[in-house]
Amino acid sequence: MTAAPAIQLEGITKRYGKVVALDDLSLSVPGGVFGFLGPNGAGKTTAVKILLGLTRATMGQGSIAGAGFGTKEALRRIGYLPELFRYQSWLTAREVLALHCELAGLERARWRPEIERTLSLVGLADRGASRVGTFSKGMQQRLGLGVALLGDPEIVLLDEPTSALDPVGRYDVREIIRALRERGTVVFLNSHLLTEVEQVCDSVAIVDRGKVVAQGRLADLLRTSTVRLRATGLTREGRAAIARFGELDDGLDGAILVRGIDAERVPDLVSAAVAAGARVYAVEPQHESLEERFLRLLGQ
Amino acid sequence: MTGSLVIARQVVREASRRRLLLALVLLTLVVIALTVWGFSRISDLRTAGQPLSDAQQKTIASQLLILVMFMFSWVLALAAVFIAAPAISGEIESGVALALLARPISRSEYVIGKWLGLLAVVLTYGVGAAVVELLAVSLVTGYAPPRPAEFLAFAVGEAVVILTFALALSTRLAGMVGGVIAAVLFGIAWMGGIVGGIGAAFSNPTITHVGTATKLILPTDGLWRGAVWSLEPSLIIAAGTQVGPAVAANPFFAPESPPAPYIVWAIVWIVGVVALAVWSFRAREI
């Protein structure tokens, strides 16, 4: 694909007085589902607000949907679910969606089918006529997701979309995100829930204190893994030989965990163990979870 | 511009859905009923056992009406402050603004939309309530003020001035803070008008200038004087003028209409403060 990236941030810095929220942040989101990960206060929400022009960067530039941040041209193609979502409590769910149809500039003929489609997509089909003020937090978040998906935007920015949802709600959101990817929608997902990101994202960036500490395809980021080696007859020299492949740890069941080994080198590890006189019973690659990787990166 | 109309419609819808208009209408009906009852008792007044002459009754009715309308103008102005002060800041604090402003709508469309919506609410309530009161009084006493249309324009204009001011504060300050500031300044402007009148009464140019300055900085009291003048029968104006310059200190009397340049100034002031609100909100980080 030679097309310009859907989202591009170049050297974005944002300061609030002396507090640095984003520090020379550069990102490129080609498409697919992008996870923007980081602990609370890392600057994730600030970044999304800059993408929407709700907040201005102190320094740096970039583009979204081929246009400048906060321009009408860009905003016409973006759907957004804020982290602190609140919708007009005096309106019904249908009226909130109609208001956003109108603000988004959708043709009037499309409103009704679009509203009904969205309501059923987010599981509120039977609550369309209820006032938002009577909704639980989870239902309001579902409505917010509906608002973000209204009119099939090219890019959807979701800021902690499952924070108020129960496990069923989280599952539903994952399914919705997967369906968006199938349709070619670009999803920018802000989250600190790693399992959520791991299950739906194609690529991620990990941000901490306003800086990107790792970025890339999820599969690449998680490539270094741990191998569980079950072997007997491993001498001190043998241990030293395999220690060259990674950090060694003794498992509870007598197996040896080789941490931080590149998947490509696993056969060499086995050869080295055998050459050192060991009898190998099992070699089980154990992928590092995103959480382990995340904690390792933040610990650096 | 369509964005502004969408936002304006939401303001009106919120006012009616949250029963703001209903509460105002019900309370106003109570007030109107009470004042009309008061007006109806004027004909029962006696002086030395004799009923009052028609002219005396009309004079009392006109003075009473000015006092009632004074209260009404304060209620209208303070109601305008209460709804305008949190109009923008409240949506930012609650988070409602995040989703709205992420739509293809400019900050200026948003501010102007809010202003238009508030204007519609204040205009509807202000004109509606004042017309009902004037009609009820004229039905009961047979007295009608000489310039009712001008009165409506001045009274609503005064409310629009303070509404616009409170909305401009709302782009930067929390509703509570902006509301208190607008209400206090409204009161100060009224006092400024009286102070200026005292200066005029005693031919003290410094004090007169203070009054003039407050009338220019916040043109609420200046417009209120126009509302008073619209309610005065020529008999009262003639009698008041004979008292001499000291009458200028009376906040319930105005010998003449505010001059045309002042009315133009009030309009320029409103447009200017709306522009200021737009400018202030453009730079606001959400």
Give an account of the 3D structure.
Chain A has 300 residues and is an alpha/beta fold. Chain A folds into 2 domains: 7-218, P-loop containing nucleotide triphosphate hydrolases (Rossmann fold, 3-Layer(aba) Sandwich), CATH 3.40.50.300; 222-299, YebC, transcriptional regulation domain (Alpha-Beta Plaits). Chain A has helices spanning 44-52, 72-75, 93-104, 108-121, 137-149, 167-182, 194-200, 218-221, 236-243, 266-275, 290-299; strands at residues 7-16, 19-29, 33-37, 59-64, 78-81, 155-159, 186-191, 203-208, 211-217, 225-232, 247-250, 256-261, 279-286. In chain A, helix 9 runs antiparallel to helix 10 (266-275). With 286 residues, chain B is mainly alpha-helical. Chain B has one domain. In chain B, 78% of the residues lie in helices and 1% in strands. A two-stranded antiparallel ribbon of chain B has the order 1-2. In chain B, a hairpin with a 2-residue loop joins strand 1 and strand 2 (50-51). The longest helix of chain B has 35 residues, at 107-141. The model of chain B has no long low-confidence stretch (mean pLDDT 92). The interface between A and B is medium-sized, with 27 and 21 residues.
What is the overall pLDDT average of chain B?
A: 92
CATH topology of the largest domain in chain A: Rossmann fold
Assembly category: heterodimer
User: Secondary-structure element order of chain A, as H and E?
Assistant: EEEHEHEHHHEHEHEEHEHEEHEH
The N- to C-terminal Cα distance of chain A equals 34 Å
List keywords for this structure.
heterodimer; A: 300 residues; Rossmann fold; 4-stranded antiparallel beta sheet; elongated; B: 286 residues; two-stranded antiparallel ribbon; 12 helices; globular
Short description:
The complex is a heterodimer of chains A (300) and B (286). Chain A has 300 residues and is of the alpha/beta class. Chain A is built from 11 helices and 13 strands.
